[in-house]
Amino acid sequence: MEPDMKQKKIAPDYDIIKVIVFASSIIILSIILVGTIIYIITRNEVVHKLKSQDLPSIVESMAYRIDSRIERAKEVSLMLANDPQIIEWVSGGEKDPRQQDYSLKKISNLVHLATDFDYSNSFIVSAVSNQYWDENGNIIDTMSKNDPDDDWFFTTLSSGKKVSISFDYNKERRGTFVFVNALIGDIKQPVGVTGVGLGLQDLSREFQDFKFGKQSDLWLVDKLGKVYLSDDVEVNGKNIKQIIPPEASQRVIQHISAGTRGQYTMEYRNSDNQLTDLIVCPLSSTQWSLVFQIPRSDSIGFLNTIKLNTLFASLITLISITFFFYFVSTRLVNPYKKSIELNRELEEKVLERTKELHEKNTKLTDSIEYARRIQKAILPSEDTLSEIFYDYFLIWKPRDTVGGDFYWAKKVDSGFFIAVGDCTGHGVPGALMSMISISILNQVVKGPEDTPSSVLQKLNILVKKTLKQENRDSITDDGLDIGLCYFDNNNRITFAGAKISLYIKNERELRVIKGNKKSAGYTRTSSGYTFTDTVIDVNSNDLFYITTDGYIDQNGGPKGYSFGRKNFMKLINSCYTKPLSEQQEIFLQTIQDYMGNEPQRDDMALIAFKIK
Amino acid sequence: MHKLIIEGSKSTPEINFDPDNNILSIKGQSYPENAFKFYEPILDWVDDYLKKLENEAKVQIDFTLPYINTSSSKCIMMLLEKCDDAFLDGKVISLTWYYDEDNESELECAEEFTEDLNLPINILPR
Question: What ipTM was estimated for this complex?
C-alpha cells in the first residue's frame, strides 16, 4: 500500500482550479459591488450636501456681506437725511455758509476719511435749487427733468420712500455702484436727496476668494437677468441669457422676478454639456439676487481620488487574501494532504473488512493451483510426446489456471494415438470434464483395432452414461469436441473428429480434414451416431496441426472479431518452413498481438507435429 | 404481454423482443459464463409469446451474432427450435441473420445454425 500512496503526487486538477476561479470571481464581484454602492451613496450624499448646505452657505455668506454693507449705507444715508443742519441748509436754499460748510464736510468725510466703508461718493441734491453737490464740495450737475440721466432724482423724490437703493453699472468708472438715496425732510414733500454711493469693487475681489472651484461663477443679477457684479470683470454688464442656456436663464430670471424670499437651487447642462449646479439667493436689502454656479465635476471631483484609492485598496486586499488563503491551505490546513490521509485510512479499513474475503480467496486460489498440478500430471508428459513425435510444439493455455481443453496421447505397439479435446466450459467444470474424458479414453483405447471413429462413438456413449445424459430431459448437457488421430508405423494416419479438424501442411498444399458436425457426449448426439474415419498417407515433412476453437475464436483486432480460420491457415502457410520451436513463439506472439487488451476468451490447446 | 429488453454487455448480446410489433432481435457477441442462467428468462419469454401468438401475426426474428460460444449455442439452438416448431404449427415466422463480411466465422455460424430449420431464412451481409 505505502509505495502506491507516495507516488500519488499532489497535482492540481481542473476541479480545484474551477473552484479557485469561482471563489475569486465571487470575492472580486463582492468588492466591486460594495465599492460601487458605497461610491454611489457617497456621491449622492455629497451632491445632496452640496445643494442643501455648501452652495447655500456660500451665497448666504456673500449675500450677508453685501446686505450688511448696504444696510450700513442706508443707515448712513438716513443719518444724513435726518441731520437738522442739512435739512435747514437745503430748505434754506443753500445760503447759510456755516450750514453749507458743515454739510459738505459731512459728506466729504464719509468718502475721504471713512475708507473702510468704501463709500466711493456721497452727495446732496437739492430739490429747491436742483443742484448736485458732491463729496468734494462741488456742484457737478443741475438736475433737469429733460435729462434722462437725472430721472433717478425725480423718481426718488416722488417715490414716497424714505430710503431707496439703485444699482448702477457705471461704464466710465468700470464698476457697479449702489446708490443709497435718502429723502431729506418730509417724505411727502422732500426738499432733496442725499446719500452715498457704494463701490463694490472689493466685494468683487472677495467673490473670487469666496467661491470654490476654478470654473464656478458668482454674480449679482437683477430681475431682468443683467449682471451687475461678477468675479470675472468681463462678465459685468452682460445678461445671463448670454452666458447660460436659454431654458436655464429663463428659470433663474423667473425666480428673481418672482421675488420669493428663499433660495432656489437647480441644475442644468451648459453649452459644453457639463452638468452644472446653480443657486439663486435674493438679497434682503434689494430686489437683486446673488447667483452662484459650479460644474458638478468641480464639486465632486475629489471623489475620483476616493474611487482610485478604493480600487487600489481592494486590489491589495485581494492579493493579501489570496496569499493568506494559499498559506493557510498549504501549510496549515492542506486539504489535499488530509484527503490522501483519509484515503489511506479508508483503504486500511477496507482491507481489514475484506481480510476474510481475501483469506477465502487465497484458499480458493491455492485449491485451484493444486488442481492445476493434478491436471498437468494427467496430461501427457514432454517425454511421452518427444518419444512419439519426430518434432512437435504444444500450446496449452487454460483460461483460468485449469481448463476444459486437453491433449491425450497413447503409444501402442503398432503406432500411437494423439487427441486434442475441448470439454464444455472452462475453469473447474471444464477440468472435471477433461478428467472424465481422459479417463474414458484411457479405458476405451486398447490397440489398433480401435479405429478413431469407434473410439469416438464409445466416448460419446460413455460420457452420456457417466453424466446420465441418455435422454433429452437430463439435468446436465455437457460433452466435448475432440480430434483423434491414429498413426500406424506404416506412414498412414487415420483421423476422426467431433467438431475438430486436422490440418496437414506440406509444400504442395494445406489440407483441412473436417471433423463430424456432432460433438461427443451431448444429449443431442444419439448413442448410435457414427463418426467418420479419414485415412491419409504421410510424407516426410508433413506438418500436422490440431487445435481447439480457443485459438481460432479468440477476439481482438480492430473490430473485436474472432481471429478466424483464414488467419490461422495464413499463419501456418507463412511459417511452415521454420523450425517448430520458432513456430511456437510465432503462434504465441501472433495471438497475443491480435488479442491486444482483450482478455483470453476460452481455453487454448494447439498441437503441431511431424512424424518424420 | 410486456417487451423483453436486456441491455447488451461485452459477453452478452442485446435482447429486444417487441410483442406489439412482433419483432424479436438479438444483437451482439454471446459468451456468458453461465449461458443457461442468461438465456433461461429469454426462453421462458419466447414460450409464453409463442403460446399467445395469433396465426395472422407476422413475426420477424433478427439475429446479429458475431460470436456464440458452445454453451450459448445450445440455448440459441433451443430458441430456434421453438420457433421452428411454431412455424410448423402454422404461425408466420421468418428469420434474418445479419453477418459482417469481414468476419468469416459469422457466416459459417449462421449457415450451421439454420441448416436444419424449416422456417424461412435470410442470411444477409450488414
Answer: 0.81
Cα B96 to Cα A48, B3, B26, B75, B110: the distances in Å are 89, 20, 11, 18, 10
| CA–CA gap between residue A500 and residue A520 (Å, rounded) | 11
pLDDT in tens, A210-264: 666 777 888 888 888 888 778 777 777 788 888 888 888 888 888 888 777 788 8
Dump pLDDT digits (tens) for A101-132: 888 888 888 888 766 666 888 888 888 888 88
Residues B100, A566: C-beta atoms closer than 8 Å? no
Q: Chain B contacts of A480, Cβ < 8 Å?
A: none
Q: Which residue of B has its CA nearest to A522?
A: B74
What cell was used for A292? 452662484
Q: Mind listing the pLDDT tens digit for each residue in A271-299?
A: 888 888 888 888 877 778 888 888 888 87
| Inter-chain touch A561–B100, beta carbons under 8 Å | yes
Residue with C-alpha cell 449679482? A220
Q: Counting beta carbons within 10 angstroms of the beta carbon of residue A82, is it exposed (0 to 12), middle (13 to 18) or buried (19 or more)?
A: middle
Closest CA to A203 of A290, A294, A279: A290
In the numeric block, which cell numbers belong to residue A10? 499532489
**CB-CB under 8 Å, B66 with A562:** yes
Buried-state track A566-594, b at ≥16 Cβ within 10 A, e below 16: ebbbebbeebeeeebeebbeebbebbeeb
